[in-house]
Design brief:
CATH topology: ABC transporter involved in vitamin B12 uptake, BtuC
Organism: Micromonospora pallida
Helix content: over 70%
CATH architecture: Orthogonal Bundle
Strand order of the largest sheet: 1-2
Number of helices: 12
Distance between the termini: 49 Å
Membrane topology: Multi-pass membrane protein
Subcellular location: Cell membrane
Pfam family, one: BPD_transp_2
CATH class: Mainly Alpha
GO biological process, one term: amino acid transport
Length: 289
């Protein structure tokens, strides 16, 4: 029983990071119809912001974590103005090349500035444990789950209870009609990317004390997040979140009861099985060409 609890908590922790990144990807695609191949690298940037705040500025972990999320909002605004806004109405080929180029630049920049060795961020919560059904669980993992739940709760309120959030949903449902009635597409796009970057910052701030920061940390994370987006249905945030947790739990159970060598096989087998039953994903719809 204790082994199952441990793997479930590990799975929920993995699922939290996949869900946070996948939700940002789905949000950007749903509103702007852009597939952001640099989104995993935004998590990496957030991880290094957390490391800089902790190691160089000496900030306590909670303060450094909040500063990381705030910093990622600024990064998201800059990313929109410098890249996304310029490729918004270009073909998908241009969008793919541009976001991939940003991804490569960020990975190499991090390697040049900080080196290729992982950087560890220490937090008191990652060193403490609590007993759950007789199993010692790192407090930081519970922090990940709690912060992720609060983040998605805030996102639901934002999307359904604010004018900007409702405008984002309207743009996602019918972009042409939303523009015709006068919705400010540029401002909404900026807020969308900033929101997605903030969620990447939350993922970075919570998981880095568990896994450390490295230049390539966003690469595999992007692959898993894309799998969650595809499985949930492109542009569907709820589907991406649910799929992220399904993939995280599947991966943890595969590692715990089979072998780490089978983890990725199980994850992508689950995705393929879902797509065989529902080709547009769990909650998806056909995407316009």
């Amino acid at each position: 029983m204790s082994g199952l609890v441990d793997q479930l908590v590990n799975g929920l922790t993995l699922g939290s990071q996949y869900a946070l990144v996948a939700a940002g990807l789905a949000l950007i695609f749903g509103v702007l119809e852009i597939v952001n191949f640099a989104h995993g690298e935004l998590v990496m940037v957030g991880a290094y912001l957390l490391y800089a705040g902790s190691a160089y500025l000496g900030l306590p972990y909670p303060v450094a974590a909040l500063a990381t999320v705030a910093g990622m909002v600024v990064v998201g605004v800059g990313f929109y103005l410098a890249v996304v806004h310029r490729i918004l109405h270009r073909g998908w080929q241009v969008q793919l090349v541009a976001t991939l180029a940003v991804s490569i630049v960020l990975v190499n920049l991090a390697t040049v500035v900080e080196g290729s060795l992982p950087k560890t961020v220490y937090s008191e919560q990652s060193l403490r444990t609590v007993q759950l059904a007789g199993t010692p669980i790192a407090v930081q993992r519970l922090v990940v789950l709690g912060v992720t739940a609060l983040t998605f709760g805030a996102l639901v309120v934002f999307l359904h209870r604010t004018r900007t959030g409702r405008a984002m949903r309207a743009l996602a449902q019918n972009r042409e009609a939303a523009v015709v009635v006068g919705l400010p597409a540029t401002r909404i796009g900026l807020v969308t990317v900033a929101t997605a970057a903030a969620m990447a910052g939350v993922a970075a701030a919570t998981i880095t004390p568990l896994y450390s920061a490295s230049p390539t940390m966003g690469t595999l994370l992007s692959v898993k997040a894309f799998a969650a987006v595809i499985m949930g249905g492109f542009g569907n945030v709820s589907g991406a979140v649910l799929s992220g947790f399904v993939l995280g739990i599947s991966e943890a159970l595969a590692i715990g009861y089979l072998s780490s060598a089978y983890a990725d096989v199980i994850v992508f087998s689950v995705m393929i099985a879902v797509l065989l039953v529902r080709p547009h994903g769990l909650f998806g719809r056909a995407v316009r060409a």
